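Project standup — Tuesday

K.O.: blocked on the structure for the chain from last sprint. Re-posting the sequence here as requested.
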Amino acid sequence: MPLPKTTALDAQGMPLGQPLRAGLEISPREAKRRMQDGSLLLVDCRTVDEWDLVRVPGSQLVPLHEIEQRVEDIQPAPGQQVAMLCHHGVRSMKAALALRQMGMQNVVSVAGGIDLWALAVGDDGLPQYDREGMKLLP
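H.V.: unblocked you, prediction finished:
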């Protein structure tokens, strides 16, 4: 279920009262800032259909169900952190934890996923979408 467009956000761009899990998550605003300064590689672990519907410019697609087979495709530059992104932050957390188990330690999940990104990083013009019907929301 997409977040309502009227969701109140704190200074980090997180819904009020929703803390980040330290060391495991970053906010969409932080992810965007770090992509811009080159210190973050954003890897989208949603499905191809979701990726085709809407995506964050500069991100790389490695669907969750392909993570183990495609771990070598995730190549951060020296000093870059990897941030996993999905629709709401559940699959990206699973992907981040799986990558950590495979030995990639500098990996986090983008809290709230692309749905929160659409609200918190408004200058990207990313729309929210309904995953059930695979359609963009007004």
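K.O.: great, moving the ticket to review. The longest strand covers residues 40-44. The first helix runs from residue 28 to 36.
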